[in-house]
Amino acid sequence: MLFRIFFTGVLIISIAIMGFSQSIVYILTPIPLNNLDAFATPAKQWKIVGGLEGDFTTTQPKDTRGTGILYNDFKDKNLGKKEANLRTKLEHGNMVLSMDFLLPKGAKSGVLLQGRYEVQLADSWGTVFPTLTDNAGIDAGHSETGQSFAGQAPVINASLAPNLWQHLEIEFQAPRFNENGRKIQPARFVRVILNGQTVHENVIVSSPTQASAFTNEQAKGPLVLRAIRVLWLLKILNMPCSMTLR
After folding, report:
1. How far is CA 120 from CA 23, 111, 159, in A?
2. Which residues contact 82 (CB under 8 A, 6 or more apart)?
3. Which domain holds residue 227?
4. What is the pLDDT of residues 56-90, one digit of tens each?
5. 46 is a domain residue
6. Structurally, how many domains does the chain consist of?
7. pTM of the entire structure?
8. Maximum CA pair distance of the chain?
9. Domain membership flag for residue 9
10. Which of 84, 113, 124, 159 lies at a CB distance of 3.0 to 4.6 Å from 227, suitable for a disulfide?
11. DSSP assignment string, 55-79
């Protein structure tokens, strides 16, 4: 069972999940969106706004002054540049991420757990047979790693129309390493839920995905938000940074 408590402004939740024989306790770290202090060296295109205006045909919603929404005003010159992406100062291992995001018509982006394992964010409204490049798809393995992870499409297209807020929940298990630094367990998406519908369960990711900020694997890494054509907006509601079993 998942319990969530939202506090607009401080952006924090309380989460508890009961396993079969273990209790999983999440240590929560709030990410306030009244400024960009929680992010490392943000590019100028990232800013904090208070609201958005547009309909399902709008490719660039009008933003209004205020706080609470992380906004990416994408520029063509930044296409494909990893330095245009946004990363948190916080580094996480196992985590549960709960977030709202809004995509204009035709937009595409992604969120990378540990900066390495991507869940796609895309305008996939109306797509009948979603692929791994559609909304909530898990990207394929990075070519430089030589791994064979082929990526995975969501089992159902749960996407909403452009310029509607959508809700994404990700339960992620970080890779594990022994005392010698050898990987003994790969990363795993335990569950991905888009707009209330489970689109992935128990997806093992054997290597960083194609858009990863790093090609190696570590026990911890930052959350990375991709800046991709056309326009990208993200409202992070909650982000627990670690998980312990007891």
Report:
1. 30, 7, 12
2. 213
3. 16-245
4. 887 777 888 898 888 887 655 555 556 789 999 98
5. yes
6. 1
7. 0.81
8. 54
9. no
10. 84
11. -TT-SSPEEEEEEEEEEE---GGGT
